[in-house]
Write a sequence for this structure.
């Protein structure tokens, strides 16, 4: 079980909403079945009753902060802070936003919660038959944490899941169950924060020959349909003018037709292997020192592509080449906005 | 058109103050080096972002060379420091995906190093030529044009 009591969370939300300290609270609400939850904006104390906190809460909420910044629900003149519920992994996203100077710490009011691990719906969906779960169970059952593990409770039975077979990959390498920054922490603080080791999948990929690597990645690139779901859900991908999407040129009423016609197009929107390769590589590269491994891209990808295999490589390199971890310390300057005399340069002739 | 031996097409991004001047010196000193590079002059090596390099590959480049001032000698003081950091990351990513490591190279060539420039280009072409034409990342309509040329 989690040490976080949902009623306490709802109470904290209701209090900040009714006192007017916070303009909108971002949390989770029940999704289409018991395994699924979706991000929700609670705008008044009554709506806060719909909040949930269970193993179904897989989406990372930090992206919703950015969405609200772009299109403020409460209008551009309401400068009150946003509320957000954070787990041990999401706090990195808020730290990154503060580092990027997109928000100040005072712009968010954080309720910290203790999260033992959340469900990967894609994994769960494939296992329904194995575990003896019917669609009725899905609709009417309740997914809970039992002894820090995920279980499904229906009126007739209780099914306990093997963590490796149900949790999101990032939960299997959890660095800490509670966030490091918060206004109020509901639950017991996790005092044993660790750093996840370098992912084995990345190390294995690095060992392959160029031909083997290209064989793997060409297959991945050929399956990408350029739906941009990974970019739209990504915690760090919030540029309004996207370098890999020529249709997002920033224009004003003075932009001439010639400027629009001659805009630089680094890569087209076609979903052929070369263009997809550039899209995915550049997106991963732009996440250097910024990707927090929230797994939203893998979760959102309709083609099930191993996108994080690229991002985790970049995370590993940021650590080994520059001793840099994204989302770790607010005082760290962004990775590519500063340099060190001791940066590696052996690859340069 | 008579059939020709494959000759790699290399895009070279040269910084205005050091590497371009170095290449110019190689020219005026009549230093012989392979004619495969097509130069794009940029004001500083840090102007070059991975966008540029990937775009060059998309358009059919067989190799990309990026050359700037030596560390500490950047005309804009810090540009090449940023370039070094950025491309250390990018070079690893390119190789991770399966692009042959010989196809992208960075070098520091100063304005007085005409000889070195010739050597850098010779060494680069020697490494890239045996790999054959770059076909993995060439965008579709460009690839059709390349194939049509080969067939001719």
């Amino acid at each position: 079980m989690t040490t976080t009591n949902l009623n306490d969370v709802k109470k904290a939300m209701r209090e900040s909403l009714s006192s007017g300290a916070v303009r909108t609270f971002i949390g989770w609400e029940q999704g289409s079945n018991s395994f699924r939850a979706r991000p929700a904006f609670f705008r008044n104390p009554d709506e806060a009753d719909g909040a949930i906190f269970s193993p179904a809460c897989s989406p990372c909420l930090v992206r919703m902060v950015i969405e609200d910044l772009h299109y403020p629900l409460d209008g551009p003149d309401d400068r009150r802070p946003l509320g957000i519920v954070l787990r041990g992994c999401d706090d990195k996203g808020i730290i990154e936003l503060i580092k990027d100077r997109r928000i100040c710490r005072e712009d968010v009011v954080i309720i910290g919660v203790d999260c033992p691990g959340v469900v990967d719906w894609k994994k769960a969906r494939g296992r329904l038959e194995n575990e003896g779960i019917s669609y009725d169970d899905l609709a009417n059952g309740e997914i809970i944490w039992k002894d820090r593990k995920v279980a499904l409770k229906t009126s007739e039975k209780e099914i306990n899941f093997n963590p490796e077979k149900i949790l999101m990959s990032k939960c299997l390498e959890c660095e800490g169950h509670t966030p490091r920054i918060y206004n109020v922490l509901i639950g017991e603080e996790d005092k044993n924060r660790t750093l996840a080791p370098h992912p084995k999948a990345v190390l294995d990929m690095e060992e392959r020959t160029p031909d083997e690597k290209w064989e793997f990645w060409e297959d991945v690139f050929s399956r990408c349909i350029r739906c941009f779901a990974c970019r739209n859900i990504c915690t760090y991908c919030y540029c309004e003018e996207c370098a890999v999407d020529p249709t997002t040129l920033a224009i004003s009423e003075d932009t001439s037709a010639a400027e629009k016609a001659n805009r630089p197009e680094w890569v087209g929107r076609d979903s052929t292997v070369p263009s997809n390769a550039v899209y995915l590589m550049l997106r991963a590269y732009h996440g250097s020192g910024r990707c927090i491994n929230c797994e939203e891209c893998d979760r959102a990808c309709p083609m099930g592509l191993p996108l994080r295999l690229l991002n985790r490589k970049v995370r590993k390199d940021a650590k080994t080449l520059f001793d840099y971890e994204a989302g770790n310390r607010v005082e760290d300057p962004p990775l590519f906005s500063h340099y060190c005399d001791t940066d590696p340069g052996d690859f340069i002739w | 058109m008579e059939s020709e031996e494959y000759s790699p097409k290399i895009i070279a991004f040269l910084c205005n103050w050091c590497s371009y001047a170095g290449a110019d010196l190689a020219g005026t000193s009549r230093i012989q080096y392979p004619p495969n590079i097509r130069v794009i002059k940029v004001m500083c090596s840090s102007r070059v972002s991975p966008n540029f390099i990937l775009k060059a590959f998309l358009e059919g480049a067989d190799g990309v060379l990026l050359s700037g001032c030596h560390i500490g000698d950047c005309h804009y003081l810090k540009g090449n420091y940023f370039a070094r950091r950025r491309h250390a990351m990018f070079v690893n990513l390119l190789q991770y995906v399966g692009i042959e490591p010989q196809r992208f190279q960075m070098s520091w060539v100063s304005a007085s190093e005409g000889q070195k420039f010739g050597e850098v280009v010779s060494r680069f072409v020697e490494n890239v030529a045996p790999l054959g034409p770059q076909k993995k990342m060439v965008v579709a309509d460009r690839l059709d044009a390349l194939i049509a040329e080969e067939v001719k």
Q: What stands out?
A: The CA atoms of residues 6 and 49 of chain B lie 29 Å apart. The helical segments of chain B are 19-28, 50-58, 79-97, 114-128, 140-151.
